[in-house]
Amino acid sequence: MADEKKIPRRPLPNVKEPDTAPFWAGTREGELRYQRCDDCETIVFYPRHHCTNCLGRNLSWHVSKGEGTVYTYSVIRQAYHPFFRSKVPFAVAWIDLDEGPRVLSNLTGIEDPSNGVSIGQRVTVDWEEHEELSIPLFRPL
Amino acid sequence: MATQARAAAIVGIHEYPSRDVEGAVTPLHIKTESALRALEDAGLTIADVDGIYDAGDGGMMSGLAISEYFGIKPNVIDTTMVGGSSYEYHAAHAARDIAAGKCRVALLTYGSTAHSNAFAIGVGGRGGPAAAPWDNMDGFTGMTLVSNYAMVAHRHMYEYGTTSEQLAEISVATRYHAMRNPEAVAGMTALEFMDIRETTIEDVVNSRIIADPLHLLECCMISDGGGAVVIASAEVARDCKKAPVWLLGSGEATGYPENGGDITTSAAAQSGPSAFGEAGVTPSEIDIAMIYDSFSITVLALLEDLGFCKKGEGGAWVEGGRLRFDRPNDGPALNTDGGGLSSNHPGMRGIFLLIEAARQLRGESTSQVDGAKLAVAHGNGGMLGSRHCAGTVILGKD
In chain A, where are the structural domains located? Predict the structure, then answer.
């Protein structure tokens, strides 16, 4: 156990943060949730307590299929946080989910990130499980 | 031009020369020294200052803190904090406050010991999870500052065919200017840059990649530094030592991720037209473009958004050394002090954009453009590829 403490860990979100708590609760069920305004049908992401189009509070939660397209990405070669330093080179990407939300995540399951990622690439969610939540990473479809 | 409001002008400037204070001075010392020198430059004293503008480097409640530290009791306190663009906002607000008669002499100061503190900016920098909902959705990815901008570059390349060689033009032009600026050369020396010389496109694209597709020489440095700007009413400006540099127009805007949005278009597309419209000038009339160069892609996107060329055409537009100060017939000279890429970047570079624009319009630059009459200073605060603020200021001489 003493050794385990030395292994650098991914920095995790605060599951109690009020606006995003329902999103992170969903990840424990393997659900990639997003919000839609019942009044004006605007897709809201990141999660909030109100609609970003009409400021209304009639938001409902929906579950994404978890599939989407790489909008843009970068392969990080230099990082300072111990966990990410141990991961370089790794890819960070904005992903457009098919339902509309644009999410930021990391790409996994790619042998050589320097050559294996492209804009327009189809990806699907790949959960990284933790004690209180799961992190939605994405891998090529 | 006759209808332009000329109510407020930059009358005093100072750039703190050291890029590495070796822990011997504090940000407050840099602010104070810069204030004194900028007021001397104007022929004014601290007793003349009745408006204070501060981006929080003076600490919590910085408008109060810096007033007490300087020993003044200003009538106007503005602590707008929008990162590197803060000083363009301060200049715009000072012009507005002076035009409204709320104050006559506005003082903007900046001090940072980012290098001495090993504060990660240029090739470093990372976000971490925090309590804010937006950070709570980003922090787990390990997105670095460079990679945030790199994602703009990748999409720009994908949409418009922009190349690394074209982006490198921006690094080459700013280094060309830096080599003519003794303070920039001394700074690069103090910060132990390797091989301090003019660079080529090959040098840039052969430097190591920090975050694809951005190379080391496309990233700003991490330095210490600071400065001050004094802005005064037309009445005060008449009796100042140097020719006034008029604030002709300004614009402000926010940009943030939007579902289905275009990451290659920044908030400058909103702030630019406001500023140019108020000033009654067009980008084609601009002699000096002081554009926030945190990274090469920042400048390329901002030049397009400000209207120097169409969206997507920036790559071809900057080719062939067009941005150099000695190519005045080809459009504006870019960052003639050497910019954040090759002169200094202590974290919030916006004040230096105003300072070098003023130098050019006074005829005091080390890469002087003959007869420069109009300049734009555009600050980008925050992160271009996610949430950022834009501040555009148009400046002109008599």
Answer: 12-140
Question: What's the rounded mean pLDDT across residues B74-97?
Answer: 97
Q: Could you tell me if residue B124 is inside a domain?
A: no
| Residues of chain A positioned with their CB less than 8 A from the CB of B128 | 11, 81
Range of the domain at B37: 8-117+222-396
The answer to the question of residue B328 being in a domain is: yes
Quick check: A81 and B151 CB within 8 A?
Answer: no
Res. B122 pLDDT band, cuts 50 70 90 = low
Which residue, among B160, B167, B212, would best test binding to A if mutated, counting the most A CBs under 10 Å from its CB? B212
CA distance A65 to A99: 8
**Residue B112 domain-assigned (yes or no):** yes
pLDDT at residue B130 is higher than 70 = no
Contact B143 A92 (CB under 8 A): yes
What pairs with residue A122 in β-bridges? A69
Query: Does B384 lie at the interface with A, CB-CB under 8 angstroms?
Result: no
Note the Cα B323 to chain centre separation in Å: 16
CA–CA gap between residue B255 and residue B384 (Å, rounded): 8
Q: Is B327 on the interface with A (CB under 8 A)?
A: no
Which among A48, A92, A114 has CB closest to B147? A92
Which site among B140, B210, B263 would you substitute to test the A interface, given the most A Cβ atoms closer than 10 Å to its Cβ?
B140
Domains in chain B: how many in total? 1
Q: Is B44 a member of any domain?
A: yes
Q: Tokens in use for A27?
A: 């990840």
What is the distance between the terminal CA atoms of chain B, rounded to a whole angstrom?
11
**pLDDT digits 0-9 by tens, B8-51:** 999 999 999 999 998 888 999 999 999 999 999 999 999 999 99
- Give per-10-residue mean pLDDT for chain A (141 aa): 69 93 97 97 95 94 98 96 95 98 97 93 98 97 94
ipTM: 0.94
Q: What is the Cβ-side half-sphere exposure of residue B272, based on CA atoms within 13 angstroms? A: 23
What's the pLDDT at A2? Answer: 47
Chain A residues whose beta carbon lies within 8 Å of the beta carbon of residue B154: 72-74, 119
Is residue B58 predicted with pLDDT exceeding 50?
Answer: yes
Q: What is the CATH number of the domain that holds B78?
A: 3.40.47.10
Architecture of the domain defined by A12-140: Beta Barrel (2.40)
Residues in contact with B205: Cβ distance below 8 Å, sequence separation at least 6, in sequence order: B164, B165, B168, B215
| Chains A, B: CB pairs < 8 Å | 131
For residue B273, CA distances in Å to B269, B350, B388 come to 7, 19, 17
- Chain B residues whose CB is inside 8 A of the A101 CB are 259
Nearest to B129 among A12, A45, A102 (CB): A12
- Nearest CB neighbour to B263, from listed A76, A94, A103: A94
